[in-house]
Amino acid sequence: MFRLRGVNSCLRRLLHGGTVNRDQVLEQLRACSAEDQVFDVVGKNKAKLTVTHVSCAVSILWQFQRDKPAWLRTVELTKSHSQFLTLRVLAENKIALMDDFMLVDMLYHFLRLHVDPHDSLVQQLVSEAWLRIDKLPLESLSKFANCLNDQYLHQSPLMGHITSIVDQKLSSIDDARILSTLMVCTSSLVSPRLRDAFISRTDHLLDTMDHLHYNNPRRVLQFLRNIKYSHRPLLEKCNQIFLSNIPRLDAENIFIIVGLYQSLQFNNCDFRLAAKQRLIELIDSSTDPFSFTKLFVALAPMASPEIREGLENTAFLLADELSAQQALALAEALEMIQSRNLGLLNKIALVIQRNLHIYRPMELSKITQALYLLEYQNPELLTKLRSILINFLQRSVIPHEVIMLTRVLSMLPCPQLDEAVTSRVEKVVAQCSLSNLTTISLAIAKWVRNDTSYRHSTPSKCVRLLQTLNRCGHERLQMADRLDLLLEELKYVSGEWFEEMLLEESIRTLQRMIDQVNFANVPELALFLTRMNHFCSPLMDRIASVAIKDIDKIQLSAIYATLLPFTVMNYDPAQADELYDVCIQRFTPHIHSFDPHVLVLLAYSLAVADCFPEELVREIFSIEFLGRLDSQLEILHDAVNMRTRLRLMELNRAVCLQCPEFQVPWFHEGYCQQVQKRGNGNVSPVQQQIHKMLGEVLGGISCVRVAVVTPYFYTVDFECILDKHLQPLPYSKSTLQISDRGKVRWGTISLENIKDELPPGAQRVAVNFLDSKSFCKNSHHMKGEVLMKKRHLEILGYRVVQIPHFEWNSMELSTPDAWKEYLKKKIFREPSS
C-alpha cells in the first residue's frame, strides 16, 4: 500500500492536466518488486532518465525499505550500490527542474536512505527548498521541517522562518498529521502564545480526524514532552485514541507511548492495563532483538514476577545478538525493575563493553547510572567508563551534558576528584539552572564523602566550587522575573545544599512574584512548598484565593497537588472551609475519571484535614473500586504500589474511627501485622533516654510500656496508666522493653489486653516523642499527620502527651532533674474537662 502511494505521489504531477504519451521507463520502474530491479532499470536507461524518473526511483527504493521490519532493512547495501550514486548525481543536476512537492520528497527520501546531511546533494536540496519556503504547500513544509529536524537544525534560522509561517497559517491547517509534525519540529522555538494556539488547534483536529491514525496523537505527546508542558485535557484526549487502537499497536508504539507518558508524568490506569495485556499477547511474536527489546522495556516494569522471569530468560538467549542501543535499553529496564539476574547483566555488560566507542555522552551516562544503581561489580568496565566519561567531559561545552557527565562520574569509585572535572564545571556553572546547580552540589558531596584525603586537609577545590555555586544560585534567583520559568527550575531541586543555601532565597523570590500566581501554576507552587516542607502563609493564602476564584480552570488531576500543602503542613487559611468545599464540588462529579490510586491519595489527604466527603468515601470502599485498584496496583512501580497500599490502610483506619456511620469495615488487620513484622524495632537515643526518665518519674519501669500497638495499629512510643488520683499503675507484665542496644524486645502483645477495662476514673496516657519530621522545616508548626494521630488516639481513649524535640533538647532542659520535672508537668496535669 505504501509503495503504491509513493509511486502515485511521483506520478501525480506527470499525469496532471491532460493526456500524456506512454512512458516505458516509468512503467518499468512501477513494475519493479525489488531494489535490484530498480537499479537494473536505472543502469539501462541512464541517458533517458528525467527528473520524474529519478524521483520515482528514489521513492520506490525508500518504500522497499520502509515496508521491511527495522531489523531486516538493508539501507547500507542499497546506498552502496553503484546505480544509487547515479541517482544521486542525476538528482543533484536536476534540482532546478523539480517542482515543490518533488524537491522536498527527494530530500526526505535521500535522508531516509542515509545520505549524509553534509553531502552536496542534501545541501543543495535544502538550499533550494529554503529559497522556495514561502510558497511551499503545507504538506511539503511539514516534510521539509521534518528533514531539518533529522539534521539537528531544530533551532536554526531556517526553522525559525518555518515557525513564523506556521504561526501565520495555523488557522488554515486542517490535517492533524501536518500540524502534529510541524508542532514537533518547531517545538524548540514556540512562544507560550503559539504553544496555546497549537494546543487549541490540535484539540479541534483530534476530534475531527480518523482515530485509526494513532501516530497523530503520538506526535502531539512528543510536542508536549519537548516543551515540558503537561496539558491534561489534551493528554486525556490522546489517551482515548490510543485506547481505541490498542489491538493495532505493536510493541514499538506502546514502548514509545509509555516512554512519553513517563516523561510527561501522566499515568492512566486503563491504558496501562490494556497495554500490558496487548504486550503479553505480543510475547510469542517478538522473537527478534529489535521487537523484543521494545517489548521488554515496556512490559517488564508492569509484569508479574512469572512473566518478568520469562522475559529475562528470553533476553539472556538473545543477548549476544543485541545492538549497542538495545543493550543500553535493556540495562535501563533492568535497573528500573531492580533485577538481580547476574547472568543476564554480565551478558549485557559484554555487549556494552565492546560497543563503548559507539555511545554518545548522554548514552554512556545512562549506562553508568544503570550499572551503579544495579550495584554491578565489574572493575574493568567501570574503569573504562570513567576514562571515556572524563574525555567526553573535557571536550563538552553543553551545560546540560557537562552536568550529566559530572553526576555519573561521582557515582564511580575514584581515588580523588579530578582537576579536569572541576575546571570544566566551573566554566559552565554560570549557565546552569537551579536544578543543575543542586546536581553539582550532590556530586561534590559524594566526592568529599568518598575521598579520605579531604578528612585531613581543606578541600580547596570543592570549597571554591561550592562558593561559586552559592553565588550563581543567588544571582539566578535575584534575576528571576517569571514565575513559570522559576517553578520549572525548582521542580527537581533537592538536597541539603539547596535547603541550606538557597531555600530561603527561593521563598523570598516566590513571594516577590506572588502576583504572578495563577490557576495554571498553582499546582507546581503547591508541590514545591510541600516537597520542601516549608511553611509560608503568604504564598499558601495566595494559593487558596486563586484556587477558590478559578477552581473551574484548575485541571482535575491538579486538585490533589493544590490541596497538599494545606493538609500536609496543617494550615487552615481564613478561607479554609471554602477552599475544601470548592475542591470537593469540583472533583465529585468526575470521581470515576480518576485513576484509582490517585483517588486514594486524594481521599487520604482530605482525611488528614479531618474532611470526609461521603460520596468519595463510599466510592473508594465499594467492591468495584477496590477491584479496579487491585488491578492497577499490579502495574504500578513498587514504590507507588507500597505508598498507595499504606494510604488505603490509613484512610480505612481514619474512616472507621471518625465516620462509623459510613459502616466501612476494617479490613487491614493482616496487612498491618505484616508491616509490623517487617519493622526493625530500633529506637533513637533520645527515646531510650525518655524511657529511662519515665521509669524514674512513674516510680518504676514496670509502669511504662514501650512501643505499644493500639487497636487499628497505631504505635505509641510509651504508654502508662494513671488512676483517678493521677497515680501510676504498674502493668502485670511488661511486654515490651528496650534492650541495652536500643532494640525493642517484641513480646507477644494482645490487642485484647490493650482494650481491657480501666479502673474507674483511670486514664490511659500515650507519650509520643516528636522528632523534626513531625514539624515544618522552618518553624515549630506541627504537621497534619501528627495531629491526625493525636485525634485518633484520643478517640481510642488515650490522653496524648507530645514531647517536641525542640523542647526536649532545649537549653532549659539540660539536666536530668529538668527533664523529669518537664515529664511530670506533661503527664500529671489534670485532664481537661
UniProtKB/TrEMBL annotation:
Keywords: Kinase, Mitochondrion, Transferase. Pfam families: FAST_1, FAST_2, RAP. Residues 765-825 form the RAP domain. Its main location: mitochondrion. GO terms for biological process: mitochondrial RNA processing; regulation of mitochondrial mRNA stability. It comes from the Eukaryota. The keyword Transmembrane helix does not apply. It is found in: Mitochondrion. One of its GO terms (cellular component) is mitochondrial matrix. SMART domains: RAP (SM00952). One of its GO terms (molecular function) is kinase activity. This is FAST kinase domain-containing protein 1, mitochondrial. It comes from Lates japonicus.
